[in-house]
Amino acid sequence: MTQVTRQEVLGLYRKIFQIAKKWQSASGQIEETIKEKEYIKNEAKTLFRKNKNLTDPKLIKQCIEECEARIEIGLHYNIPYPRPIHLPPMGLAHKQGRTLRHQEKLRKISKPIYLKSHDELS
C-alpha cells in the first residue's frame, strides 16, 4: 500500500468515527442513537481489520469506494445500516443448469458497491 493510499484509508477510518461520535438516530430516541453509534463503530472496526492485509491496488480502491458510498448513503438517508436491494427472485430457474448460473451471474453483477462486503460478513 502506498503512503497516499494509507493516508486516505486512515482518513476514512477517522471520518467514520467522527460521524459515529456526532450520530443522531432518525427517531431521536437515546437508546436507538446509542445502538446505531455502536453499530457504526463495530462495522468499521470489523471491515477495516478484515481488509488490513490487502495488497492488490484494485481491491484496495474498491474497498475505498465502497466505504465512501456507504458513508454518503448513511448520511443522506440517516440510516447507518446498508440499504437493502430489490432483485428479482430466482424462483423461475431450475435447481441446476445454465439458467440458474445466468441468473446468479446477473444478481452478482447487479449488486451495488456498498453491499459487497456486507454479505461476506453476514
TrEMBL record:
What organism does the record attribute this protein to?
Chunga burmeisteri (Black-legged seriema)
Question: Where in the numbering of this chain does the Complex 1 LYR protein domain appear?
Answer: 7-71
Q: Name one GO cellular component term.
A: mitochondrion
Which family does the record assign? Belongs to the complex I LYR family.
Q: Which gene encodes it?
A: Lyrm1
**What is the recorded name of this protein?**
LYRM1 protein
- One short Pfam family name for this protein? Complex1_LYR
Transmembrane ranges, per UniProt, are: none
Q: Which PANTHER family match?
A: LYR MOTIF-CONTAINING PROTEIN 1
